[in-house]
Amino acid sequence: MTPEELVAGHTVYSCVMGSRAFGLATEDSDTDVRGIYLAPTPLFWRFEKPPTHVEGPADEQFSWELERFCELALRANPNVLECLHSPLVEHIDATGRELLALRGAFLSRQAHETFARYALGQRRKLDADMRQHGVPRWKHAMHLLRLLMSCRDLLRTGVLTIDVGAERERLLAVKRGEVSWPEVESRMARLAAESDAAAARSPLPAGPDRARVAEFLFRVRRESALTRAV
């Protein structure tokens, strides 16, 4: 079975991500599709295992095998966690609905560290652009601000919301380069400090509910072994 066939025939959930999911789309925005496929269990009984992820077959499309997706979500990977909270779901089956019902099990205060680490990496890239070109990549600056806001609000409320809502115009002004770099830096520092403060009293648990996720994976693997043809 080819990777493309796995995506085409065994996807349990797919959604639109990027600017369209964040409420930041403009006329030139791409449509980024992210998906999760459940490789039939008998494929794991062979020497050559099914792929953990697949790029394509469409442009701007990327999918994870269910177990790999859950591993990353349990580590509070920002890009992965946000997929479970996209308002733009393209496809979902019974397994996908179970996964969405389980999405709270992945959320924990670990997000503070992983979101902050990801944000730091993005900030270093912005600083490198400043040193090399004298100006930042404003689109990347906008998305970094969005990520920092998302992290702060998650830690404050225990709920991950990815649509920027009323912040749309302020963020798009950054993308257009209408906000000074010192002001953007000030916003980033303020959001990081607010996230640190929120982490100390967050309603989120210290870690994810690995047992619930493990039980879900075991059950869907067993059902696949009994019912799904390769």
Task: Tell me what you see in this structure.
The protein has 230 residues and is α+β, with helices and mostly antiparallel strands. It folds into 2 domains: 3-106 and 208-227, Beta Polymerase, domain 2; 110-200, no CATH class. 54% of the residues lie in helices and 11% in strands. The protein contains 10 helices and 5 strands; from the N terminus they run H-E-H-E-E-E-H-H-E-H-H-H-H-H-H. The protein has helices spanning 3-10, 19-22, 66-74, 78-83, 94-101, 110-133, 138-157, 168-175, 181-200, 210-227; strands at residues 11-17, 32-37, 53-55, 61-65, 89-92. It has a 5-stranded mixed sheet. Helix 6 (110-133) runs antiparallel to helix 7. The protein is globular, with a radius of gyration of 19 Å. It starts with a helix and ends with a helix. The relative contact order is 0.15. The model has no long low-confidence stretch (mean pLDDT 94).
Descriptive tags:
230 residues, alpha+beta, Beta Polymerase, domain 2, 2 domains, 5-stranded mixed beta sheet, 10 helices, 5 strands
Q: What can be said about this structure in brief?
A:
The protein is an alpha+beta fold.
In the CATH hierarchy, the third-tier topology of the largest domain is known as Beta Polymerase, domain 2
Average pLDDT metric: 94
Task: Tell me the Rg in angstroms.
Answer: 19 Å
Strands ordered across the widest β-sheet: 3-4-2-1-5
CATH architecture of the largest domain: 2-Layer Sandwich
Structural class, by secondary structure, is alpha+beta
Question: What letter string, H or E per element, gives the SSE order?
Answer: HEHEEEHHEHHHHHH
Q: Using DSSP, what is the number of strands?
A: 5
Form type: globular
* Total of DSSP H or I helical runs spanning 4+ residues: 10
